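User: Second chain of the day. Same drill as before.
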Amino acid sequence: MSEYQYLEFLAIDRPLTAQQVEELRNISTRAQITPVSFVNEYNWSGLKASPVDFMRHYFDLHVFLANWGDAIFMVRLPREALEQNILDVFCSSPYLKYEALAEHWLITWSLEVSDDYERFEFVEDTAWMSRLAPLREELLRGDLRSLYLGWLRYISNEDGEPDELEPMVVEGLGQLTAAQRSLAEFLEIDVDLLTGVAKGQGPKIEQAEDETVVEAWLDSLHKDELRGYLRQMVQGQGAQAERTVRGKYAAWQRQVVPAQVAPRSVAQLWQLAKQAQEIRIVEEAKMLQQAKAERQQKRNAWLAQLASDFPQAWKGVHQYANKGHASAYDTACQQLVDLRDAYNLHDTKAAFQQQLHEFRIQHQRRRALLQRLDKAGLHSK
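Assistant: Same format as last time:
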């Protein structure tokens, strides 16, 4: 099997210069390159450069997939967006790593290995970049759930000691954003573990914060810092100012507002996953039973319709048999199965057998048809 690789890079904070576009074109003549993106696929070779170097110098987001079972997502963030101690506690496995650049953090989520090779066959239809890209903005606003998911990939792979604790308590795990749900899918996080970690948590609070808490934070800010945020807004950088403020407020909260619950151990998380699995199995069984009942109800309605005019139904079967080709024989056979069940419900088995006997005699030279009838158990008696 030939190797397949898909690479996509995206620039968010600033577009590439003409010189940078030329530098990238010198590296790859086949890639689709714009002032904000770089996309390429490889079947026999690979990128003639380091994706990490691309992220260091050009881009803010990167998606990589390879058909040997790896998937990588990278985000470049300004250093002021996250404290290093936060990255240190979450990035403790090969599935979630970070690198300190001159002015940025480079965070990498990695699947490492997958047995589901089919997911890498139609990468162009998955739109992973557009699905995962919002995670960067969420991190800039202080939302750490994507980092928790990276750590959860480590647990999902059954690594970690039973008494190892969560890096920290992260709220809102039961109400993940669309991008966070996509990241969980991208990393193939165990679905029951994902459900289990949310157990006992309320939804992430999105409404206005308690005024006393907000006022306490504002009082802790230096006048020059407040002026800096206002200056950004006056200069048309309102969105950047907002996400910086939100990120710093979230960081302050983590320091001064105690968590409502204690961190859980890996063993506790797997116990919650087991409970979630048991509930899921029961719910899936209920859904299957309901779907089966609905299918049976629809079939009974169809059989009642057939029984309302048996002569017309038999006429239709003969018409398909007389067409004399394989697909018509298949249809005739299925219609006879339906007629058998309709007779069993609304007439008698003997009445059907009499009609079937006459049908087989009339079409006795159609050996391919009769073989289909025998295989379906439609024998005349």
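The chain has two domains: 5-201+261-279, 309-375.

User: Great, on to the next one.
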